[in-house]
Amino acid sequence: MTVIQPVSEYKNIVSLITGALALISVFMFAGTLYVYQESVDMRHELAVRTKLLEKIHIESVELKDALYGLTDTLHLKGLVGERNLVEDKSPSYFRKGSILWAAARSY
């Protein structure tokens, strides 16, 4: 007696395709988890770096404030009076052609 099974010749191909799709689905799910974890790590690192940058910016502003306070004209005039310094009307160290003249002129 002959039994006809029309699907039997495609059974191996169907199971191979089903297994391949299942394997691809697993790899895609694992890849999605990896990408999500990396994005969470990046957001956390970005938040940490942003806080560090703000802290550095605040320190920079404080240092600039201290520097500008030291070079303020009122502070310098007080320093001149405190140390009994006299203003030189024609300083000889700024003669044309001298090294200091060239250095001062480059700024």
Strand segment count: 0
Global Rg = 39 Å
Task: List low-pLDDT spans.
Answer: none
In one word, what is the shape? rod-shaped
Number of structural domains = 1
Number of helices: 3
Look at the helices and sheets and give the structural class: mainly alpha
- Taken as a percent bin, the fraction of beta residues is under 5%
Q: For the residues shown, what is the average pLDDT?
A: 84
Largest sheet: none
Helix percent reads over 70%
Topology as a string of helices (H) and strands (E): HHH
End-to-end Cα distance, whole Å, is: 107 Å
Describe this structure in words.
With 107 residues, the chain is mostly helical. It has one domain. 72% of the residues lie in helices and 0% in strands. It is built from 3 helices and no strands. 0% of the residues are buried. The chain crosses the membrane at residues 12-36. Keywords: Membrane, Transmembrane, Transmembrane helix.
